[in-house]
Amino acid sequence: MRKHITEHHNNRKHKESNETEENFGLYGYCLLTIPIITFGLGTWQIWRRDWKLNLIKDLEARLSREPIDIPENLEQLANLDFCPMKVEGEFLYDNEFVIGPRSLIINGQGALEGKGNLISGHSFNRGYNVITPFKVKNRNLTILVNRGWLPKKYKYPNERLKCQVKGKMKIIGINRLNEKRPQFVPKNEPEKEIWHYRDIYEMAEFASTDPVYLDMVELDFKPGMPIGTQTRMNLRNEHLSYIITWYSLSAITGFYWYRIFVKKIPIF
């Protein structure tokens, strides 16, 4: 008798399982992947957020370091991206060029306002960064220095004559590494002196310098001169909103899947 009851119970469970699978069907199981996938994406964004926070913390730590001399072994610069460097020497204007167009950067972020009184009548939406070779004192080393941002009319060398500073000087700059060509950005055309992105090796060959590139830090701005400190330092961190979005989608789609395929309650 007990054996018969057990077999009956097992058969019933097997029948219910088969009915459930039939009720779910391929369509039901396909829809079940939506809450699963969105839950996985939300979990992945948690990892991405932690990674981005550590990246921002590392960037802030690098930028706050005391400026150091450019190392004798230039290969060490590969581990010093965004680190301040101090150099003494003089600018060489013969091979100066511009990269852009660029928008003005203030405090590490793109700016449309803030220094209009310094260069009146010009739009901060369109200008150029001025790249000038710099001969380092007491070293067989000439580097590239991004002196800063100027409005678009300064694209032409004769307009930049008034922006030159002669003689020996000390400057501080942020070490920047080579930049890969961003998607949808045109290639550089050195033969036409057209530069869209920071290809340090190509620039160094063009200007007859070593492949070292500094974004000059603005210490004492003077009207009519390039606006320094053109290092973009803000890193977008919107991962928290992504986490909320993906987990919300997972919860909503999971709830409706349970309601439709388990509870058999229609949506409408």
Describe the SSE topology:
Layout: H1 2-63, E1 68-69, E2 84-91, E3 97-102, E4 105-106, E5 109-110, E6 127-136, E7 142-151, E8 169-176, H2 200-207, E9 213-216, H3 239-262
Parallel strand pairs: 1-2, 7-9
Antiparallel strand pairs: 2-6, 2-8, 3-6, 4-5, 6-7, 8-9
Helix pairs in contact: 1-3
Summarize the structure.
The chain has 268 residues and is α+β, with helices and mostly antiparallel strands. Helices cover 35% and strands 19% of the residues.
Q: Which whole number gives the mean pLDDT?
A: 85
Number of strands: 9
Q: What is the straight-line distance between the termini?
A: 47 Å
What is the overall number of helices? Answer: 3
The spatial strand order of the largest sheet comes to 2-6-7-9-8
Descriptive report:
- By secondary structure, the protein is of the alpha+beta class.
- Helices cover 35% and strands 19% of the residues.
- It is built from three helices and nine strands, in the order αββββββββαβα.
- The chain has a five-stranded mixed beta barrel. Strands 4-5 form a two-stranded antiparallel ribbon.
- Helix 1 runs antiparallel to helix 3.
Question: What are the main properties of this structure?
Answer:
268 residues; alpha+beta; 5-stranded mixed beta barrel; two-stranded antiparallel sheet; 9 strands; 35% helix; elongated
